[in-house]
Design brief:
By secondary structure, the chain is of the alpha+beta class. It has two domains: about 70 residues, Glutaredoxin (3-Layer(aba) Sandwich), CATH 3.40.30; about 110 residues, Glutathione S-transferase Yfyf (Class Pi), Chain A, domain 2 (Up-down Bundle), CATH 1.20.1050. It has nine helices and four strands; from the N terminus they run βαβαββααααααα. A four-stranded mixed sheet has the order 2-1-3-4, with helices on one face. It is globular and about 45 Å long.
């Protein structure tokens, strides 16, 4: 049985998993999924009706990007994206959760903007304020270490990169002027094949 990832090309959540698969050099069949018109096959795999969904070679079905990344890291441990030490791993999970929250805010902002004249400007302002707050936290962290947790690439970086990549896709790269340390980190990571090969496109 082949490993299959159900995804959409622009999904930042699916991109997290695609980057990890590429970094670990795990062969995977990519199954583009129509989220607006979900097939019965897909809904049988994902009761929440969202991508990504991973069907591993052993037949195990997993949905939720963070759970999939954790599973891949424990099952195929080289290279590792979570620290072994208990407290460091907790810090990593917390940083990854912050990055996932950032992605949720960015997606929420985009959905509001898409409404056009019916958009809620108050909601947009709240989303943008929250985005800037989290980017500020990551900017400060980058002043202290090479990456967002420590001096090693971790799940925090992969989650944050995926969210910020989606932010760049939808809103451009003006944010880089306000957050130069994050911009440097973002551009350096784009030298990696796993990142280049998963860039979301319009």
């Amino acid at each position: 049985m082949s490993r299959t990832l159900y995804y959409t090309q622009r999904s930042p959540y699916a991109r997290k998993v695609r980057i990890v698969l590429a970094e670990k050099q795990l062969p995977c069949q990519l199954q583009e999924t129509d989220i607006k018109n979900k097939s019965l096959e897909f809904l049988n795999l994902s009761p929440i009706g969202k991508v990504p969904v991973l069907v591993d070679e052993n037949g195990l079905v997993l949905w939720d990007s963070t759970l999939i990344v954790e599973y891949l890291d424990e099952t195929y441990p080289e290279p590792a994206f979570y620290p072994n030490a208990r407290l460091e791993k907790i810090r990593c999970r917390q940083g990854e959760e912050l990055a996932d929250a950032l992605t949720d805010m960015i997606v929420g902002l985009w959905y509001e903007v898409r409404k056009g004249d019916g958009a809620n400007l108050v909601a947009q302002t709240q989303y943008q304020s929250a985005i800037d707050r989290v980017l500020g936290v990551f900017e400060q962290k980058r002043k202290e270490s090479l990456y967002l947790l420590n001096d090693t690439l971790t799940a925090v970086d992969i989650a944050a990169l995926s969210g910020i990549g989606y932010y760049s896709l939808r809103f451009g790269k003006d944010w880089q002027q306000q957050y130069p340390k994050i911009a440097q980190w973002f551009n350096q990571l784009h030298r990696r094949e796993s990142v280049q090969s998963t860039i979301p496109r319009e």
